[in-house]
Design brief:
single chain, alpha/beta, 3 domains, five-stranded mixed beta sheet, two-stranded antiparallel sheet
Length: about 325
């Protein structure tokens, strides 16, 4: 049901504790076990992409690998794009390729690299908390038409790592007290009792944290945004510490969660109707193509599956006049 804006998560990821929690609990172990979290350093994330003159304001952190057997270290730049829209983005691989290139361009422009040093590695991460299942491709190669093997090395290649909040259920992270797992548990709570229990777990975990006051303050702000955006009507101005939230939720247990659930049902029904229309358009277009041109090649079937309603409607109109399947999708 969560649809709150990425502002709350950008605030969380401005603190190294949450970046560490992400890396330690939600990225592949072969990557996370190589990292020295003591070296996490926030990097500027404000720049203009050279291609579209688009201003980016995302979160960028650098972290060093642990020393290898020879005592050598290397800096790994972690690039996090926070994606919290209810609609998925089928062009995400291209966006991440574009953003990564813009990041490299900025490093070179500002001459931040020592002479003769190669560009650092980039690890793109998409954090997604929308309701529809994330279906876009995760690799740039999946967006390209298939080519012979000898041409593949000339094609742009980039993958990103997806963290879908809906899939981050308790037990996903290696540690039950992972700060980010506790935040995800709040988003994934399905009952009023579950929400209260998770809120108490968060408050208890932060109480023993070395940076208790600061982390408590950060999570209180995130929780307030979450409650407000999900129309859970409690007195937000009266909340100053995490431990104050569970009793407030308990006071309205008979009403607030039902209001929240009904809102989610309405949003889910609307989203379901939209998805049903999209699927119907896809099926209609595929049937028309088969009737007019015969078998549907895989590359065009993939384009249909990744298309939005406007593209599907355009192709359905075009098929009346197209004399080949290539002309239809030109």
């Amino acid at each position: 049901m969560a649809t709150h804006h990425d502002t709350g998560y950008k605030e969380l990821f401005s603190h190294p504790e949450f970046v560490e929690a992400l890396l330690d609990g939600f990225v592949p172990r072969p990557i996370s076990q190589l990292l020295d979290y003591n070296t996490l350093t926030s990097q500027p994330g404000h720049y203009i992409t050279p291609l579209f003159r688009e201003k980016l304001e995302d979160v960028v952190w650098s972290v060093q690998f642990k020393p290898d057997n020879a005592g050598q270290t290397q800096t790994l730049y972690l690039y996090i794009l926070l994606e919290f829209q209810s609609r998925t983005d089928k062009t995400m691989p291209l966006r991440m390729l574009h953003y990564s290139a813009a990041f490299y361009h900025q490093l070179l422009k500002e001459k931040k690299l020592p002479s003769r040093q190669r560009l650092p590695a980039v690890f793109p991460v998409v954090l997604y908390n929308g309701q529809p299942r994330w279906t876009p491709p995760s690799s740039m190669l999946d967006m390209l038409q298939p080519v012979p093997a000898f041409l593949q090395r000339f094609q742009p290649q980039l993958d990103y790592h997806l963290v879908d909040v809906k899939d981050c259920l308790p037990g996903t992270a290696d540690s039950h007290d992972n700060l980010l797992q506790l935040v995800f548990n709040i988003e994934n709570a399905l009952t009023a009792d579950g929400m209260q229990r998770v809120a108490k777990e968060v408050a208890d975990a932060v109480r023993s944290h070395p940076q208790r006051e600061r982390i408590d303050r950060v999570l209180v702000q995130w929780f307030k945004r979450f409650l407000h955006q999900n129309r859970i009507s409690i007195d937000l101005d009266a909340i100053h510490q995490l431990q104050e939230i569970p009793p407030m939720l308990a006071d309205r247990v008979d009403s607030w969660f039902e209001e929240w659930k009904q809102q989610g049902i309405a949003e889910g029904r609307e989203e379901g109707q939209q998805q049903g229309r999209t699927q119907a358009l896809r099926q209609t277009l595929e049937k028309l193509i088969q009737l007019k041109f015969g078998n549907l090649p895989q590359e065009y079937a993939q384009r249909i599956q990744q298309a939005d309603n406007s593209e599907l409607e355009l192709w359905t109109e075009r098929i009346l006049f197209a004399d080949s399947i290539e002309a239809l999708f030109a």
